């Protein structure tokens, strides 16, 4: 299969400091692992505030998208957002996010496989734990909301980061990992997921 086959799609996951402190690293890895995706890189580090800011601003649209998502979420609940200007909202979020992610160790990983970006987002759940679906990591293992994090002047604590698109994933992986830190290997489970004929299970 060529390198452009969908089984080569990759995405970045970062277990944030609250995920480590809540002893959820194993549970989080288990959920992605059991989906059938392949872990191709993993490491623990304490990122600097500058590194975190660069990570979130790799996508020039991130400020606008995240600000608009926050405003929409407030309005959906019949509440007034802290500002009507998406960029004013993300200026504060970014400041709080750099603090949040540089406070302690995080575990960064790269998962590979068919639809890796979409599958990982589905397993991770929506950004705000108050409204993330049950059955997702953010919906099952933590509690937080935009409202309370805004009152407290901090970022929403939602245990993990997961890339939002294939393009974002490619940029983020390059930001977090050097080429030699990602391993190209065969995983026996892949035969079941990608093999076209599914021959060889029964003894001849
Ligand atoms: P996601 O992590 O789901 O891709 P975003 O990229 O929009 O979400 O935002 C990045 C991170 O910023 C979120 O995971 C969360 O920790 C924090 N965040 C986003 N929106 C807000 C908000 N309105 N208030 C506080 N923190 C926020
Ligand atoms: Mg995002």
User: Helix count, per DSSP?
Assistant: 10
CATH superfamily of the largest domain: Nucleoside diphosphate kinase-like domain
Identify the overall geometry.
globular
Distance between the first and last residues' Cα = 26 Å
Widest sheet: strand ordering: 2-3-1-4
Number of domains: 2
CATH topology of the largest domain: Alpha-Beta Plaits
- SSE topology string: EHHEHHHEHHHEHH
Strand content: 5-15%
What structural class should be given to the helix and strand makeup? Answer: alpha+beta
The count of β-strands is 4
CATH architecture of the largest domain: 2-Layer Sandwich
Describe this structure in words.
Helix content is 45%, strand content 12%. It is α+β, with helices and mostly antiparallel strands. The protein folds into two domains: 1-46 and 104-186, Nucleoside diphosphate kinase-like domain (Alpha-Beta Plaits, 2-Layer Sandwich), CATH 3.30.70.141; 50-103, no CATH class. It is globular. The two termini are 26 Å apart. Adenosine-5'-diphosphate is lined by residues 66, 69-70, 93, 97, 127, 146, 149-150, 155-156, 158, 161, 164.
Concise structural overview:
Helices cover 45% and strands 12% of the residues. With 204 residues, it is of the alpha+beta class.
Task: Describe the protein's topology.
Elements: E1 10-15, H1 17-21, H2 25-34, E2 38-45, H3 49-56, H4 62-76, H5 86-101, E3 106-112, H6 116-124, H7 137-141, H8 146-152, E4 160-162, H9 166-176, H10 190-194
Antiparallel strand pairs: 1-3, 1-4, 2-3
Helix pairs in contact: 3-5, 4-5
The structure holds adenosine-5'-diphosphate and magnesium ion (MG).
């Amino acid at each position: 299969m060529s390198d452009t086959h969908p089984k080569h799609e990759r995405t970045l996951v970062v277990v944030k400091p609250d995920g480590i402190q809540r002893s959820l690293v194993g549970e989080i890895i288990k959920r992605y692992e059991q989906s059938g995706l392949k872990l191709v890189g993993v490491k623990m580090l304490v990122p600097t505030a500058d590194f975190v800011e660069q990570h979130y601003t790799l996508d020039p649209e991130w400020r606008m998208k995240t600000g608009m998502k926050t405003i929409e979420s407030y309005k959906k609940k019949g509440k007034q957002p802290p500002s009507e200007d998406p960029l004013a909202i993300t200026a504060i979020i970014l400041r709080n996010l750099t603090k949040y992610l540089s406070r302690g160790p995080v575990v960064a990983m790269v998962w590979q496989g068919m639809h890796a970006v979409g599958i990982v987002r589905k397993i991770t759940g929506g950004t705000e734990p108050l409204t993330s679906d049950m059955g997702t990591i953010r919906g099952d293992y933590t509690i937080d909301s935009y409202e309370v994090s805004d009152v407290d002047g901090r970022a929403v604590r939602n245990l993990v980061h997961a890339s939002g698109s294939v393009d974002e994933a490619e940029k983020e992986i390059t930001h977090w990992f050097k080429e030699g830190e990602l391993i190209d290997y065969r995983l026996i489970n892949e035969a079941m997921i990608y093999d076209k004929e599914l021959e060889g299970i029964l003894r001849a």
